[in-house]
Structure prediction request, 668 residues.
Amino acid sequence: MNLLDAIELLKRPIPEPASDQGIFLECGFTPLHLKTFLGAHLRLCFPKDRIEIKTGLYGDLAGNLERVRPSSRSVICVVVEWDDLDPRLGIRALGGWRSSDIPDIVESARRQSEQLTHLMKQLADNAPICVSTPTLPLPPIFTTRGGQAHHFECQLREVDASLATSLSADRRVRLLNLQRLDELSPLGRRFDAKAEITSGFPYSLEHASILAQLLVALVQDCPPKKGLITDLDDTLWAGILGESGVEGIKWDMAGHAHLHGLYQQFLASLASAGVLLAGASKNDPALVEQALGRSDILLSKDSLFPLEVHWGPKSESVGRILETWNIAPGDVIFIDDSPMEVAEVHAVFPQMECVVFPKSDYQAGWDLLKRLRDCFGKGIVSPEDEIRLRSIRTASTLKSVLQERGLGAEDFLRHCEATITFCLGTDARDDRAFELINKTNQFNLNGKRFGESEWLSFNQDPVSFLLTASYEDKFGPLGKIAVVMGKMGGRKLYVNSWVMSCRAFSRRIEHQCLKYLFEKLDADEIVFDYEATPRNGPLQDFFAELLGGPAVPALSVRKVFSNAKAPSLFHRIVEVANV
Amino acid sequence: MSEQEDRLVRCFASVFPALAPEEIRTASTESVGAWDSLAAVTLVAVVQQEFGVEIDLLDLPELTCFEALRTYLSLYRDAGPRRDVNTDH
Prediction:
């Protein structure tokens, strides 16, 4: 994006109704064009928001951080440069570059880095904070030639690395990945000495635009995709199973198939972070079973569920996999080496990202792995991530068993030894609750998402409550699967948000949640901020069944009514304190 | 009006959105209240990027109106940076 385009983009009117969002851009230099580019990239990502960017004072990053007072819809972007650690590391101050000055510069940078770290961590208590550590080259102050690193230069890089390490260890801080910045903005083209000296703005326009774009990606914090469906022949491994046989397919360097080995290894990494994986292959099921059972395979057979192996169309396989996972096509990536299969699946599921596996192009394979990480990347891996696929597999097996034995839901629920663990409080650090609120679509009261600032602000309100429910039965745990949040007003509760994972459907957990809220918070009535969305059909069905008719906005349920309409509940209830 | 002039008008319109199109060609630091130091820095940055030119610091004090910038860009296009043209400096 060039500066002219950015300015013109910012002049475009924002469609009403617009919601307000505040961004604090904190840096020690004149924000100038970085502010413009940040505003423009924010406009592209949040076209419906009226965004105000506030900036601080020149040359006082630490003071700016101390003065920030974020509101409930604010995000803080902090851009640190070398001269924020010590002004002598910039070119505007003339504080001395004698060799005897350098040790003092290093020590002063170390102290300032520690102070900035402390201030940023403090701010993270109140608002999401996105940080960029120094991006510019160090000035030529060391006694060695430019091609030779000096010990003091290495010490400064260590200070920089410590700053980044300390910030990245705090899960509330989103740290810009300098490796990605290096790819997009070459180091030699970042610094604009003329602009720095004449206006206190150190960046070239290209660098400012790219840095702003990456900061906005941190602000946006897109929810990751949830599942990946992979082909097998010439994708998970090299070769056609039906032709080469179980021992003839390869994924190693000796077999010139190392890319497939990397792909397997990468999928195993995704699976360990809670990404759902499934296989869709036109193949012989018995052969696939043997191939996936090979001892040298890098992706465990258990990581792929379901496995659709037959000779029918791929789109039918994909449809059944989506049904088993109970997630939307837009949350899934399909990968196949055949452009024809990719086109066929994409024609049936246009919202799904469908990718041709680059089986003979290592560079494209490397790019694919990076792209997949961008699609599935997440800051925190929760215990629920680790059990997700297992619980889907269990639910699927149970469904088959019930159908085979002709058992009804009542019998199943009575004998499955279910335990629901409730936790009532306002724990803003509950990442899983925050994640559920922001990614659940089907059993969702109104589809509204929470920004991190709103979440923190909501949980700091003394009349707020946050109820989470975890579930386990004799077939295994589902983890934390439901969240209800709202406010108390006498004997009335006002529920703003209610979500439940689709893995927990048909277990009557939603009835138990209502019952628990009525009893625990001594309420007579619950008012719901209900809104129909294109995807919250299961929630609509629940209310329709409970109320005996379609749900309407601002609906309320009285305790006596809810208890009378609730079906038999067989759960054992455990309460845990809000930590 | 030349294509170059059109592009310069677009630069002025982006930095001074309150100016009517007919006011842009006569715009100067005297006539446009919004032409402060911040606007000047932004205008120079926009023009440099739009035209792929590097405006010499010593020329900045002279570039105080639309016409001066238009002339500067014409000279730059014909003979490179203006410092090279005015060899008597």
Observations:
- Chain A touches chain B at residues 2-4, 7-8, 11, 32-33, 36, 194-195, 198-199, 201, 205 (CB under 8 Å).
